[in-house]
UniProtKB/TrEMBL annotation:
Residues 378-388 have a biased composition (Polar residues). The lineage of its organism: Eukaryota, Metazoa, Chordata, Craniata, Vertebrata. PANTHER family: ENDOPLASMIC RETICULUM RESIDENT PROTEIN 44. The gene is Erp44. GO terms for cellular component: cell surface; endoplasmic reticulum lumen; endoplasmic reticulum membrane; endoplasmic reticulum-Golgi intermediate compartment. It holds the Pfam family Thioredoxin. It is found in: Endoplasmic reticulum lumen. This is Endoplasmic reticulum resident protein 44. PROSITE patterns: THIOREDOXIN_2.
Length: 406
């Protein structure tokens, strides 16, 4: 008998079964598990990372696991470089320190990171393979529109905040830094760029970045720092793209709450721009040093009738200024006192010192007139924004709950 030249092969029918099994049961994706020892290294080296913060006891977390893995499989086919896109997860019961670090209080929560920096807006889209994959593709798309003619600049939408970079060449450290900034802030500003001969007229002293604020006659502002220093140009651009006083809506309320800062809110009628302008001016004049300790917001009185009722106000009382500490709401005594030097600042300082809280429960200090008007004791309530408790049912969102988008 002739010796076998080839090893024994499986029956052709078995091969077909193996192929069908592989097609319908593809290898599961290796989702990176993060802990305190590897989280910084993995996230800092990832262009984009989508992190699933979960708890094993949460049924919505259990339902998301296979969807998250399959979305990872799809995306890794398109972005095979392991540092281009990372899908990762954190068991928040096992790693409560990480959950606390990123203020995770509901499960599952999907957070996006770029080069280690957590984005303000978490993923709140549909929990499906297609939707998650599309979201990552969108995050990987170029956020900068290249200008082909400087005439395009004259026709920009001046109701938006525009950041324009003029560079000698695209393959440069200056542009790569600009691109990193645009990837992070593209939801807040429109980013444009021009290169070579097209941009030459705007590069009289080298590569140049300018900010065109909203308003047809608003003057341009020029970035004067190093274009390769990411921290400097990011801080400058963020200051231009993210208004000091932001509008709170039912759509972004939870996102603002997750920033973990109390709210200083102006309630005003939608067409009352004069009150808004005064508030913005006084915040800039008196409270710029408090940026990072409190969120400065304005809200439509008609939309937020329920929070107003909570402080015994109606739209007819607007404009009204109040602080929402997530436990209580404190009312600024009189909007007409807004321009009194130091009055608004003292109101905020009294929050930080605990004076507003103390007077809320025990009445004005013996030697002082209460700067806030205590309305209702919510000491037994959980620490959440009054907007969450009082929003109309069709807009209600609760921070301390499981996700129900699945």
């Amino acid at each position: 008998m002739r010796p076998a030249i080839f090893p024994l092969l499986p029956d052709p029918g078995c091969l077909l079964l193996l192929l069908v099994s592989w097609l319908f049961n593809p290898a599961r994706s290796e989702i990176t598990s993060l802990d305190s020892g590897n989280i910084d290294d993995i996230l800092n080296n990832a262009d984009v990372a989508l992190v699933n913060f979960y708890a094993d006891w949460c049924r919505f977390s259990q339902m998301l696991h296979p969807i998250f893995e399959e979305a990872s499989n799809v995306i890794k086919e398109e972005y095979p470089d392991k540092n281009q896109v990372v899908f990762a997860r954190v068991d928040c019961d096992q790693h409560s320190d990480i959950a606390q670090r990123y203020r995770i209080s509901k499960y599952p929560t999907l957070k996006l990171f770029r080069n280690g920096m957590m984005m303000k807006r978490e993923y709140r889209g549909q929990r499906s393979v297609t939707a998650i994959a599309d979201y990552i593709r969108q995050q990987k798309s170029n956020p900068i529109r290249e200008v082909q003619d400087l005439e395009e600049i004259s026709s920009l939408d001046r109701s938006r905040r525009n950041i324009i970079g003029y560079f000698e060449q695209k393959d440069s450290d200056n542009y790569r830094t600009f691109e990193r900034v645009a990837n992070i802030l593209h939801d807040d500003c429109v980013f444009l760029s021009a290169f070579g001969a097209i941009s030459k007229a705007e590069r009289f002293s080298g590569d140049n970045v300018i900010y065109k604020p909203p308003g047809e006659n608003a003057p341009d502002m020029v970035y004067l720092g190093s274009l390769t220093n990411f921290d400097l140009i990011y801080a400058w651009t963020q200051d231009k793209c993210v208004p000091l006083v932001r509008e709170i809506t039912f759509e972004n309320g939870e996102e603002l709450t997750e920033e973990g800062l109390p709210f200083l809110i102006l309630f005003h009628m939608k067409d009352d721009l004069e009150s808004l302008e005064k508030f913005q001016q006084e915040v800039a004049r008196q409270l710029i040093g408090e940026k990072g300790t409190i969120n400065f917001l304005h809200a439509d009185c008609d939309k937020f009738k329920h929070p107003l009722l909570h402080i015994q106000k109606t739209p007819a009382d607007c404009p009204v200024i109040a602080i929402d500490s997530f436990r209580h709401m404190y009312v600024f005594p009189d909007f007409s006192d807004l321009s009194v030097p130091g009055k608004l600042k003292q109101f905020v300082l009294d929050l930080h010192s605990g004076k507003l809280h103390r007077e809320f429960h025990h009445g004005p200090d013996p030697t002082d007139v209460a700067p806030g008007q205590p309305i209702q004791d919510l000491a037994s309530s959980p620490p959440e924004s009054s907007f969450q408790k009082l929003a109309p049912s069709e807009h209600r969102y609760t921070l301390l709950r499981e996700k129900d988008e699945l």
